[in-house]
Amino acid sequence: MTTIAILGAAGRMGQMLIRCAARLPELRVTGVCERAGHPALGQDAGQIAGIGALGVSLADTWPADADVVIDFTFHTAVAANLDCAVARRQAVVLGTTGLSDDEKQRVADAAKVIPIVWAPNFSLGVNLLLDLVRRAATVLGPAYDAEIVEMHHRLKKDAPSGTALGLAEALAAGRGVDLKAVATYGREGIVGERPRGEIGIHAVRGGDVVGDHTVLFATDGERVELAHKATSREAFANGALHAALWLRSKPAGLYSMRDVLGL
Ligand code: NAD
């Protein structure tokens, strides 16, 4: 039996994690946490997620008894959460996106002490897409103009999405270039002709879209498009719970969903 705690439990992903975890007999949710002052503090996790009482209340204190802590919160909360997990030697599944370079460094530092699975997207489909994009970038090369377009719901706070950035990294890796040197984020004004080798990244926001990502490779006479569309957060939640079970027995280190899925 693996015990887990969910940070950001009253959020969109948190609620889906509670619903999906309730279906897995090998997991037990022993902690559900939210930021101080959240209006749902003290309420039952199952009631918040719409599945009936589970006997675990939403708290603003650290879930010290969980084997694995799952973090789907906000980027500014991640460093302090990792400090708590490191102090108690708890494993972490980290799904929060929009991390700054400093915050990413904190993740790498914490992974020297505890095992962490960190993924901008926990779905099997997107992790397969990352592999396909890397291969397409290698085969097609810079003669094919590469652009990434993502769309998410109007409430999403970071842009571009962590998944779009992961796809851009995969693209750059497939071409053997440094993403920072070739990325352009949106375009406006007299930007001039498109430089060869540029990777364009574009964020669209609206409605309740869970997550659409398209990677385009365009050249004279043809275009290749690789796309993924999420229609529910279930794929992310099940992937994160699968990662939690996988992580329990692992030594300290920074793992990706590719490691978890054995891709
Ligand atoms: P949300 O705003 O619905 O939920 C986030 C929750 O975290 C909120 O309820 C908020 O009150 C809570 N929170 C903030 N700071 C906290 C803290 N210090 N301690 C505990 N709780 C805290 O957002 P969401 O749509 O659920 O997404 C959450 C994060 O997960 C975002 O960064 C999003 O981009 C990311 N995400 C990742 C994946 C993936 O597969 N990796 C999938 C979906 C969303």
Keywords:
binds nicotinamide-adenine-dinucleotide; alpha/beta; 9 helices; Dihydrodipicolinate Reductase, domain 2; 25% strand; 263 residues; single chain
What's a concise summary of this model?
With 263 residues, the protein is α/β, with parallel strands linked by helices. It contains nine helices and twelve strands.
Would you write up a description of this structure?
This protein is an alpha/beta fold and 263 residues long. It is built from nine helices and twelve strands. Strands 3-2-1-4-5-6-12 form a seven-stranded parallel β-sheet, with helices on both faces. A five-stranded mixed β-sheet has the order 8-9-7-10-11. The protein is elongated. The site of nicotinamide-adenine-dinucleotide has 26 residues, from helix 1.
